[in-house]
Structure formats: C-alpha cells, structure tokens
Write a structure and sequence with these properties.
Layout lengths: L1 H26 L18 E8 L3 H14 L3 E8 L1 H9 L6 E3 L3 H7 L20 E6 L1 E5 L10 H9 L5 E4 L4 H12 L4 H6 L3 E4 L2 H9 L5 E5 H6 L3 E5 L2 H4 L2 E7 L6 H10 L3 H8 L4 E2 L4
Parallel strand pairs: 1-2, 1-3, 6-7, 6-8
Antiparallel strand pairs: 3-10, 4-10, 4-11, 5-8, 5-9
Helix pairs in contact: 2-12, 3-4
C-alpha cells in the first residue's frame, strides 16, 4: 500500500508541473519572442565620399565632424591630396560624391559646362551643384629662425637669381605649384634652369612643401596661408593677385555620386556659419553663404 501511495504522489507532482507549464504557455498566447519593430532597428549608415585639396585637411575634417553630429547615421570618408591627383582618380572611375579643388583648372577639366580648360569627352561634374566655396592666399614661408634671412618675394627672387637659396614648391600638376610658376614668371625667373642647378625642391602636394619648410630642408617655400597657419610657420610675404591671380576653391557633386542627395546636403552645409568658422580659423575666406 505504501508503494502504491508513493507512485500516486509522484504522478500527481509531475502532472501538476506539466499543468503549470501549460498554463504559463497559455498566458503567453503560445507566441515566440517578438522581434523589435522595423522602426526600432538602427538605420543603415550612409557613407559620403569627399575628395578635397590637401590644404583643406584640418578645416574640412572639423566641418565634417559637425555635419556628422547633426545627421545621425551619416559617415564621411575623406580623400585629401593634390587637386591634380584627385582629378585623375575621379577621371579613372574612383567612387567620389563631392569634389573640392584648390584651383578652377582641375574642376574645369571634369566639367563639360566649363568655359575653359575642359578635357574633351569628360562630363563628370554635376554643374548645377558647382559653386566657389573659399578663397585662399599664396604665401612665402621660411623655417624657424630664417637661416637665409629671406624677407619677401622680392628678396627670394634676388637670392634665387644669385643661386643663394633652395626654394620648395609644388609640382606643375598641382595648384600650389601652378601659382608658384606664375610668381617665378612674374619675376622673369627660369624654373627649368633653377631646378637643373639644384635651387628648387618639388613636392607632390602642398603638405609636402609645408613639411620641407618646417623641417628646414629648404630655405623658403611657397604654400597657402591656411597650411602655414595650421603648421605655425613664419610667413614673410603674401603674393598679390597681380603675381599669381586669385586662389579660389570650387566645390561640386559628381555626376556619378552614389549619395547624390547627401552630397547636395553636405555642400549646402559648407555654406553655413558653423562650417565657415572652421575655414576662417585657418585663414580661408568663405565665398558662399547658405
């Protein structure tokens, strides 16, 4: 009798546990764990690809952070280099949503609606988005303590002519180099002869020339005011418009932009006072306002 009673109690306990489990399932309606609603899932990140002149590295990076902070789910990939190199990369099919050049020539070469300098068969710029965003200045800078006592562009020209100094300048395919060529021509100096005689050192972009001056591997260098400001270099002179023309930066979205709407939004943001403050901090003059 005791054995039968023991079995009965065990059967009751098991049955009660099963009933409790069934009751709990019934309370949950037999439904599996619900997935978050689609609206609750994090939005997919939009990646904007920006090609910009090397001289914009510090200021545009700062402006880009402001844009990202104001636009959740947006990331920006910057490619900073000489405008000539960037132009070639776009021409060869590199992904690019926004192009900001340090000179009109490189933008014109890609823009079918440009009035001059356009490369035949190239139609890679969304002309309706193009505008002049910034103006820079071309300056003559010297290393710390100015070992060769270069005082101005006039003084540089005299000392170059006498073979007394080594000048740092950009290559002929980059805007800062093209502006320097105009300055040499203004002083009737023969670039080819100076280079052959070892009085010119070239850089592939303005950052390289800036480094040459900072490290005193040259006696003086021609770079932008913004790069000199960022690198805390001593500027001894500023080129006039007569010497090298105006230094104006055009900006535009590309025709093959994968993020066309975001590119336009970013370009409009660059006209705002917040973005302008980033540019003005290093010596740029904003040319457009939102």
């Amino acid at each position: 009798m005791k054995f039968e009673s023991s079995v009965t109690r065990r059967s009751f306990i098991v049955g009660a546990a099963g009933a409790a489990a069934f009751g709990l399932a019934a309370c949950n309606g037999g439904k599996a764990k619900e997935e978050p609603a689609a609206s609750e899932k994090p939005a997919e990140t939009q990646k904007l690809i920006v090609f910009a002149a090397a001289s914009l590295t510090e200021s545009l990076t700062e402006a880009g952070e402001l844009f990202k902070n104001a636009n959740e789910g947006v990331d920006i990939s910057f490619n900073f280099d000489s405008s000539g190199t960037l132009k070639t990369q776009i021409e060869e099919g590199s992904d690019c949503d926004v192009f900001i050049s340090a000179g009109q020539k490189q933008m014109n070469q890609l823009d079918a609606n440009a009035k001059k300098d356009h490369d035949k068969d190239l139609d890679l710029i969304a002309s309706d988005t193009r505008f002049d965003i910034l103006e820079n200045k071309v300056t003559l800078c010297v290393p710390q303590d100015n070992p060769k006592a270069v005082q101005s562009f006039d003084d540089m020209a005299k000392k170059l002519n006498a073979g007394e100094v080594l000048l740092g300048m950009g290559n002929s395919d980059v805007p800062v180099g093209q502006y320097t060529q105009k300055i040499l021509k203004y002083y009737s100096l023969d670039e080819e002869t100076l280079a052959k005689d070892g009085h010119i050192s070239y850089g592939t972009n303005v950052k390289e020339v800036t480094t040459q001056v900072k490290e005193a591997s040259v006696d003086c260098g021609v770079i932008y005011k913004t790069d000199a400001t960022s690198a805390k270099l001593q500027m001894v002179d500023e080129a006039t418009e007569e010497m090298c023309g105006r230094v104006v930066y055009p900006a535009a979205a590309t025709k093959n932009a994968k993020q066309a709407d975001l590119a336009k939004k970013f370009l409009e943001f660059l006209k705002t006072s917040d973005a302008s403050a980033c540019f003005e901090k290093v010596g740029f003059t904003p040319l457009s306002k939102a």
